[in-house]
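$ ./design --mode recover --in tokens.txt
reading tokens...
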């Protein structure tokens, strides 16, 4: 028998909705707390910049139990994704579990000795309350707190009329019209905003990034959807994974020349298609050494605008502001009216007590999470959406289905605390020593090992089928409908 729990889901974005659905389906009482005034997380309209769209095709960016509308384009826009999430919440009654404008400002183990946590919640008026929960699912993800960058001279820059804002605050494209816009960052949001500023009539647009990075166009060679190259099991197997034995390492050594030729061919194709040499943006790093969640999609029009001078690319970072200019680390001075900081978000769980923070995150920033979901030294606590990838919604969905079974002791392969610790140590060694690219974002990126990650989750859950066979299994991208069928074969239960 599984006893019903009162579960707090922190965050009402993609991951929070997945967790709420998974726990409520199993018979638990769920409360979703969201500090914002709307659901959606990064897709909340107030946080979206103009013309934002997904980096992933809609069939990869969806829950297992709800496809995106047929009328949506292959890469849905921000408003479309938000509408999809809102409809998902309403369809499954998750909207009735929502407490908006409610922030978690602290938490501690329950004082009554019962399993669970006491959360300190603060509403919009600033009123705080303490509430007990039997289990907590942290679903704040990796895009929670915007990073800040303060440089000498910024007060003077602001005083003479300049503006400095994080990319999440770039919501009005008229901000750019007739002005000199400088965008700091090399992510897709940075290139999206630079292109939007040109289209919005900016007088000058400059993008500043540390160095050129590989970007993947929606269609490689103008013909092949990138999902059919980078998101297939056959390509994933070109990367040595964790925990492989002597025979596996030998197989990789034998195949090394063919794998090398594969990547050099892809690099040559990208150089030609995106005209990287003409833009002076050929990356120094080999593409296979950096494939992870930080490899962005190429914003349409970005490279053509760099090539013809509508966007000026500067390599380095901001050093200081001087009058109405920004001086770069390399000494170059760029006139600016608006500085957009597309520098990402801070990782962390700030409301978790310091003693537990130390159990969750190592000194070098690597997270200690089994399957990127749970830590044996943080009881009655789990994380959904920390297994980031280009298949973010699917990753969150599968993690949520894993977590509820873990919380209820219903995994087919329920791990012991020591087995979890041993696995965490093995994975940390892999990310630090064998494949450092896997350590980005605190080691919370599953790319390029989507299938390996999904296989482990399905095996733990106990599905009778865990992957597709034949050519479809090796040369097709992940299929949410297929995983829905796999999950349906897992042992069923309900708290009562």
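writing sequence...
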């Amino acid at each position: 028998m599984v006893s019903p729990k009162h579960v707090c889901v922190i965050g009402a974005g993609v991951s929070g909705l997945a967790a709420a659905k998974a726990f409520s389906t199993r018979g638990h009482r769920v409360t979703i707390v969201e500090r914002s005034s709307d659901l959606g997380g990064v897709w909340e309209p107030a946080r979206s910049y103009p013309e934002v769209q997904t980096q992933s095709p809609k069939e990869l960016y969806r829950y297992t139990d709800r496809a995106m509308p047929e009328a949506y384009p292959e890469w849905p826009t921000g408003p479309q994704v938000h509408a999809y999430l809102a409809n998902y919440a309403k369809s499954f009654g998750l909207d009735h579990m929502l407490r908006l404008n409610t922030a978690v400002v602290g938490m501690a183990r329950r004082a009554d000795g019962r399993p669970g946590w006491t959360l300190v919640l603060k509403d919009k008026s600033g009123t705080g309350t303490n509430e007990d929960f039997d289990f907590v699912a942290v679903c704040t993800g990796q895009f929670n707190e915007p990073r800040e960058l303060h440089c000498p001279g910024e007060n003077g820059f602001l005083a003479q009329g300049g503006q400095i804002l994080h990319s999440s605050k770039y919501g009005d494209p008229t901000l750019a019209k007739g002005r000199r816009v400088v965008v700091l960052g090399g992510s897709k949001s940075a290139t999206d905003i630079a292109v939007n500023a040109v289209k919005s009539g900016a007088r000058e647009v400059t993008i500043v990034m540390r160095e050129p990075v590989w970007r993947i166009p929606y269609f490689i060679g103008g013909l092949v959807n990138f999902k059919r190259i980078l998101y297939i099991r056959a390509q994933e197997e070109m990367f040595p994974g964790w925990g492989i034995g002597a025979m596996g390492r030998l197989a990789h050594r034998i195949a090394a020349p063919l794998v090398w030729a594969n990547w050099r061919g892809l690099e040559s194709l990208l150089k030609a298609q995106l005209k990287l040499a003409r833009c002076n943006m050929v990356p120094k790093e080999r593409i296979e050494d950096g494939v992870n969640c930080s490899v962005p999609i190429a914003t349409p029009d970005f490279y053509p605008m760099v090539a013809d001078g509508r966007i000026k690319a500067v390599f380095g970072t901001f050093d200081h502001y001087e009058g109405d200019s920004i001086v770069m680390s390399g000494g170059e001075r760029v006139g600016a009216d608006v500085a957009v900081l597309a520098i990402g978000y801070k990782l962390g769980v700030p409301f978790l007590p310091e003693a537990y923070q130390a159990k969750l995150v190592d000194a070098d920033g690597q997270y200690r999470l089994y399957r990127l979901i749970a830590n044996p030294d943080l009881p009655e606590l789990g994380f959904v959406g920390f297994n980031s990838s280009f298949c973010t919604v699917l990753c969150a969905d599968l993690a949520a289905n894993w977590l509820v079974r873990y919380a209820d002791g219903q995994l087919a392969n329920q791990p012991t605390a020591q087995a979890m610790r041993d696995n965490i140590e093995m994975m940390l060694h892999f990310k630090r020593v064998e494949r450092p690219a896997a350590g980005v974002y605190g080691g919370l990126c599953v790319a390029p090992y989507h299938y390996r990650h999904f296989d482990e989750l399905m095996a733990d859950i106990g599905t009778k089928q865990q992957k597709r066979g034949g050519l479809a299994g090796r040369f097709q991208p992940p299929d949410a409908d297929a995983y829905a069928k796999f999950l349906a074969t897992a042992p069923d239960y309900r708290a009562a």
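exit 0
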